[in-house]
Design a protein that fits this description.
Structural class: alpha+beta
CATH class: Alpha Beta
Low-confidence stretches: none
Largest sheet: 7 strands, mixed
Order of helices and strands: EHHEEEHEHEE
Helix content: 25-40%
Strand order of the largest sheet: 1-2-3-4-5-7-6
Number of strands: 7
Amino acid sequence: MIEIVEGDATDIAKIMPIMGDAFDPAFGEAWSAAQCLSALAMPDCRLLIAKSKDEVLGFSISRWVLDTEELLMIGVVKDRQRQKIGSSLLYETIKNATTGNRTQLFLECREGNKAIDFYSNIGFQPIGRRKKYYSSDDGNRPDAITMSYII
């Protein structure tokens, strides 16, 4: 059984193996432990952890200002992807945003990332594009697709 629990700075070491596993190193999308700690030090930032017994299987990090929430990052250990763990984390983020009286949930995703389909299937709509936002090892500069979910 997968359980979604709220995490804190003491859990960063537990999510770092997933960070390296879930994000393509060619695009430098994974965060360092210092970046995660810095995010969690901001007011109104939340870490959610998906776990089974004592095994951490995934995480999400979001933050909010007033009535808007932003999903900063979501990751699931590679051999457990496509088992609804990411969906569970995202639905819990949406539930928390709803409870917190937020009206929109935003995220940003690299063009060409399969996660765009994942977000679209949940109900996110593309609302913008940041040209050549990401960089890759091969010199390409994919756009960032901005998406929104209306709560």
